[in-house]
Amino acid sequence: MSRFGIRKxxxxxxxxxxxxxxxxxxxLELTLVLPDGSEHRVExxxxxxxxxxxxxxxxxxxxxxxxxxxxxxxxxxxxGQSTLKPASDAEVALLDEHLGTDRDLSVRLACHxxxxxxxxxxxxxxxxxxxxxxxxxxxxx
Length: 141
Ligand code: FES
Prior knowledge:
Bound molecules: FE2/S2 (inorganic) cluster
CATH class: Alpha Beta
Structural class: alpha+beta
Shape: globular
Radius of gyration: 15 Å
């Protein structure tokens, strides 16, 4: 199974079945602005990462590595920076390494940034394509 069950949910969607429902929890809301400019309200459970929160989208946030060490899943927090858990030392170190210490402080790593409250608006820089999410290798065009 893929990291966040992407393949399972896509397969269920294609087959017209529903993946198992999780227990009810208090959902938080945030807005994700995708690279094409479209805005999507998504729900997230407290402490979900932005990557996890994006899993209800057809094209979720592109996570480049399975363990949060590549430092490439940059997103821009447009509004509600305080609704996200402050960056950990590990996240800051990765951002410093990849973007420099004089970087824009609104940039976060989507697989590190955790949702604490509703209200964030986040610009996503890269999303999974449907083919990538299904494990189809890219074309060599
Ligand atoms: S996907 Fe690699 S650090 Fe976020």
